[in-house]
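Working notes for the structural subgroup meeting. M.R. asked for a predicted model of this chain before we commit to crystallization trials. I am recording the input and output together here so anyone reviewing the notebook later can reproduce the run.

Input as submitted:
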Amino acid sequence: MNARFLQHSGLLALASLCCHAAEVDVTVTSSPQAVVVNNDGDEAKPTIYLMGQTDASAQPPRHTLGPTLNGVRLCERMLSQAVLILRSDGTGTYGYRAGFELFPEPITLWPEHEMFFGKWKCDPLQPARVTRSTGNFLTLASANRPVSTMYELSFPDPVRIRSVKVEANCDQRTAGYDAITRVWADPQRKQRLGETSRKAGSDGAHYPHVVTGLDTSRAFVELTSNGKMNWSGAYRVTLSAELDTKAIKLPPLVRGRNEFTYSDDEASSHRARLIFRWGKPERRRTQAPIPDAILNYRSPLADASPKEGRIVKLSEFFPLGFYGGVDKCPSNVVAWLMDRMREIHCNAWHINNLNMARLGELLPMAEARDMRLLAQGGGWASLYYCAGLGTPAQRKQVYASTLVPNAKKIVPPWRDRWGLLAWSLVEEINRDHVKEITPYYALMRELDPTHESLVLHNSHVACVEDMALNRNPVAFHDTYPFFIEPRSGPCSTSRSLAYFRQRLAQFAATAKERGVPMWVMAQSYGEPVGFDPDPPYFGHRGGVTPPTPAHLRVQAWLSLAYGAKGLWWYAYRVGLPVGISPISPDWKLTPLWNEIGRIHARISRLSGLLLKLEPAPDAKTAEVIGKNLYSAWRKRGGDASEARYLIVVNESLTEPRAVTVKPINIAHKVRDISSSQLEERSSLTLQPGDGAVFVVMP
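Returned structure, recorded in token form:
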């Protein structure tokens, strides 16, 4: 329930981290090297992870060769950053990411990027043929001939390879083309141990390839194709092998001090990473201290009475605000946050994980600041429908026994309260949950007919069905387009913006069809790449691009160009130990916070107009001149005049772009209405990611 918030944002409990009860992580830099593992608990059998580290500065490069622990040889030759996993039950896994990936922007965001993206030079038996453009692509076919790349997986004889798996993306769809994986007993390809291929199915996937029934300590894996393409390439390439390691006998961890000796061959790099893990994984929450100045903050509005206001229709209100909770923060910390939000023109706050008992405390504070709260609970008892827990039957039972009686107590007192924007019932559900929450919608509408109930979606299919079945009053969706790890999401500017536009177009079309506003929750946070040696990552994983002011601007202006009638940001503050967000983990306002203030200030001046604009794709009355620009035509709903509105966005995140709007009818005038000074001008320079609204009229 609300795991996204627990992971990324919050106030006191900042991060929910999956940790092991005990773990020792050792960097090996010499041979031999003593390794000490202290075990404070009972005797345990650890899982051991060994990551190979290649010395690429040597000529030729030196791999981790013959790694040995307490005299037991574990592997013959470790590929660069490959991971060998040895479990206490006698099974093992060897995993290797081959460095054929899309490049993040900037590439330096990826740890050890030179080594990772340069593996193709030193890890195959012969350097791979690589096509480098937006990433490293492993060439499988060229000039209608197959191209082969071979990797060696080698272990001491007691270790047996039982199966080999190759995972990759290959986007070619030509009929008759097959990607092929062969496993050989020798590099000369004299004895074939297995072969597999997969014709692209309805999903277009040529992989994964799995070769089973093996019983060898040494295998040569060939990646190739049948050659029936002028060019074909693969990316996101991962090789793995399932191992029988029963013959490897490593001592258990006794209580107290355990000493191991690591060694490797003379020709080795003498570099490796050795990890011992034991005990069951546990969830640990870290906390950050709130500065005394904020803990002791007294707001200028501390004694202010709630202002008079009115309940707004969601179609007549343009929300600008953040997503994030208050956890157990005292009122003066919440007041500090609200005061800072009002300084950057926030008029709403999507509070999640909320203990509904605090509504009586928080609503007057919001109303004193002309803010409205979108209230979302933190569990069944606080009116959050926990769609991800249990079976449908179990959820139905808990809904009836817990949520319904609590809703009957909590909701009615807040009828007619203008500081309450709406009730958020649940978020990010899939289509199977849409019917489940139909009774919940009906219950809330009965208990509080003065406020709407809604759902935040990240699935367009679920949103469409929710609109049709439950009459969700807003096409409210979150889309976070900027990633570092290409397996998590788009990692280049062009792919990220294409993905973002696609999502905006989908939800905008749904909003238009249903006659409701579209609200967008954009990305205002970043996270560094993490480390996960387990499958399928075998090393580094995840990571969200640290946003720049340009990242914020381009999301805001593209959202407006697609017709957004509300803009939210996820999140105002992210968790420890590291993170990038408008408010830093140590409670400082960052340049991102100030940039959101500038964005909000411009939107606030235009919000009345933006609420009334509707698509006018056939109403082009001017030519847009400039590079790397996105533009959209709009007209004011119910306005019969010839005035047409043009929203222009600079999609470059690094370069300013000049834009000129040239009327087709020379009698028409162009005015930039999005600047602080309304002036007649048809040319201006947009900063990276920035946008402008022009009106073209007689």
